[in-house]
Amino acid sequence: xxxxxxxxxxxxxYISIAYCxxxxxxxxxxxxxxFNTKVYRASMELxxxxxxxxxxxxxxxxxxxxxGMTIPLAAMYIxxxxxxxxxxxxxxxxxxPVYTVGLTFFILFFLYDSEFKLPILQTALNQLDRSIxxxxxxxxxxxxxxxxxxxxxxxxxxxxxQLQLSKRGQPIGAYVSQKLWLIPMFVxxxxxxxxxxxxxxxxxxxxxxxxSPIVLPFLIGFKQKLHGTLPEQAIRAYGKKVGALGLMITxxxxxxxxxxTIAIITAILAILGREFLHHSQRxxxxxxxxxxxxxxxxxxxxxxxxxxxxxxxxxxKGEVISKINGVIVREEEELYRALQINRAHCKLEVIDxxxxxxxxxxxxxxxxxxxxxxxxxxxxxxxxGGQAG
Length: 389
Hints:
By secondary structure, the protein is of the alpha+beta class. Helix content is about 45%, strand content about 20%. It has helices at about 1-5, 10-35, 45-65, 75-90, 95-110, 120-125, 130-155, 230-255, 260-285, 310, 330-340, 380-385, and strands at about 160-165, 170-195, 210-225, 300-305, 320-325, 325-330, 345-350, 355-365, 375, 385-389. The strands form two sheets. Strands 4, 5, 6, 7, 8, 9 and 10 form a seven-stranded antiparallel beta sheet that branches. The longest helix is centred in the C-terminal third of the chain and has 28 residues, at about 260-285. The protein is elongated, with a radius of gyration of 25 Å. It starts with a helix and ends with a strand.
């Protein structure tokens, strides 16, 4: 209970809350610029950060408490500073444990037995042991596994649409997923009042067998931009690759507990592997043709405003509206005119993402979005930056 209480004294807790609200504000500002309306509330990032992070914090806490994996105070202090600096860069991808914990690992590697002195942390640094190497790399692997699962389960939810111009000056649509998950996690620190209850516990120890539990907040940042495919498919596939990398790193790090050199190599592989996944996914998406662009079949749906008539009719991103109220539509103005035929009821012919035709219809009521709540790509992007349908 004391450890949980001290969590509220950790600056990373409040920095992560402020950071989520700030990126939410920037997202809403961009959405209003592109579509003259916001798609999701500014608090959307914060809500997803806390709920999903708590679940994985509980899972990882159980693993670390069962194994008794200990992290020295010096690593905790440096990790907090590195994470805060990563947040200040405003690059959400850098706020990933493979970078923050990985950089902490190499800082401690440099400071161990070094003549370089840090007055504030010197007492904590003097307590370091070489067995710090595998425990930090195991932590990297576990957090990478959590990152992969979070990307799969939450990374593709409520992604934000964006308008941009192609190299040829044609308007296209893209999707941006940006998440920040806060994982409160129990870890053990060397020393304290708790003796080892069993001979083999703790499994991954650092020097002293007396330990103390403490709750630390870990931040996992994620950002992915896509324009060549539906975001759900690409983001989930990417998350599975990150999770697989985490499993491999964890396995190698456990072996590195008995062979410290392997732990050092594994830390390098973790950073290089994460970078490879990012750049390979980006290069793959850039090679694909634009998925969201003007369609000859009708008006393609780039996005749907939540709780709007379009959302209640089950329209989804990527589908193409070919007819409204029996009128063929190919442009924005044609869509507006077709809507005016019957303001109390609308019937749509839609080509779904499997290229199958389906029909949807619904009565329209006073107070609802007067243009269904559909976001689409249109030529007016060249002048105005986009329209909300």
